[in-house]
Amino acid sequence: MINKEDNPRIVYAEIIDMPHHQASDRNNMSLYDRAAQFAPFAALVGYDEMVKEEARLTDKQAEISDDDLLVLERKISMIADEISEKRHPEIKVEYFEPDQLKSGGKYLTYSGTVKKIDYIEQIVIFYADNGISNGKEILIPRICDICGELIDFMDNTF
Description:
Blueprint: H1 8-11, H2 31-36, H3 47-55, H4 66-84, E1 90-98, E2 105-118, E3 123-127, E4 134-139, E5 143-148, H5 149-157
Antiparallel strand pairs: 1-2, 1-5, 2-3, 3-4
């Protein structure tokens, strides 16, 4: 059995105090560039992002019953009547937002003051934060519920 020395100064005594070789025709590499040589190598660039995207869950848009659709149409009609009388109600809308990258989407809630209901384009247009220009636009077929003081009053009268 060979006796091993634990002290590195003794083991490497012949070379430890020798000067480090520096090339005379090249500049020294920066520590950042030297460290980059040992950076992990990703053979499949974008693979992790692709796996995360596939794992991301989306909801399916639920079908609205005919009765619920009639109630929703009545609520939208009441809001349109208020707008025609120069009153712009503040409402909260629950709607389905389709996902841009895969099938399905998610349900979102938006609160704001209604500026206009465009029956031709089938959208509800809200005021922007400045209270003048158009803000958020939500497609009517994606709306699943509407709440607000006007709507709550209507629900109590029927």
